[in-house]
Amino acid sequence: DIQMTQSPSSLSASVGDRVTITCQASQDISNYLNWYQQKPGKAPKLLIYDASNLETGVPSRFSGSGSGTDFTFTISSLQPEDIATYYCQQYDNLPDTFGQGTKLEIK
Amino acid sequence: QVQLQESGPGLVKPSQTLSLTCTVSGGSISSGSYYWSWIRQPAGKGLEWIGRIYTSGSTNYNPSLKSRVTISVDTSKNQFSLKLSSVTAADTAVYYCARGREDGSYYFDYWGQGTLVTVSS
User: Per residue in B53-105, pLDDT tens?
Assistant: First the structure.
């Protein structure tokens, strides 16, 4: 299985801050990487697919980049409603695997 | 708007079989370039992909669970189902069904709300 390692595991930031989360794959996955947001008690929600494509309806403050083994997810200006856990997911090889998650809190 | 809804027992005894159904509304399960997946999440932990099915009946399973998992589809009812046999406490989790979109990219664009299944005697 391809291992996905996210960092940090948790993050505290202030409203308006730029927030960056990284995801590293254990092998080259090209751009076959998605990002999801999960709020407490809710199902995950797709934000970014294919590393850098913004899902329809998702605010433009969210963005993604990277290819190969190293990927970055960015919130350009943190909003209170962005408090959630964020997961990366690779689909280059089955089984699909997810990162362990990054819990984002407001400072 | 597509909606997915999981249903099934919330409590299963150890060694028994966990059975869940996902009902899809707002669109035909057979239309479009989609596949249908099960994903689970133990309390306070991350997401684990269980497997997927296409409406052709083709399936893929997580090797870690493959010997115990069966996913099936009933297109007449717009449903797909999960069976996980010989469950233990380690199978206690929130189980999600999700639609996978396959259009050159692969991603889960719609999810059910999730259903908690507890394995306990």
Answer: 999 999 999 999 999 999 999 999 999 999 999 999 999 999 999 999 998 89
Chain A positions touching B98 (Cβ under 8 A) are 43
Question: How far is the C-alpha of B18 from the C-alpha of B95, rounded, in Å?
Answer: 11
Best of A30, A96, A97, A102 to mutate (most B CBs within 10 Å, chain B): A96
Q: What's the DSSP call for residue A55?
A: P
Q: Residue A43 is nearest to which of B46, B63, B112, comparing CB atoms? A: B112
pLDDT tens, A75-90? 999 999 999 999 999 9
Q: How many helices (H) and strands (E) would you count in chain A? A: 0, 11
Sequence-separated (6 or more) residues with CB below 8 Å from residue B79: B21, B22, B23, B24, B29, B73
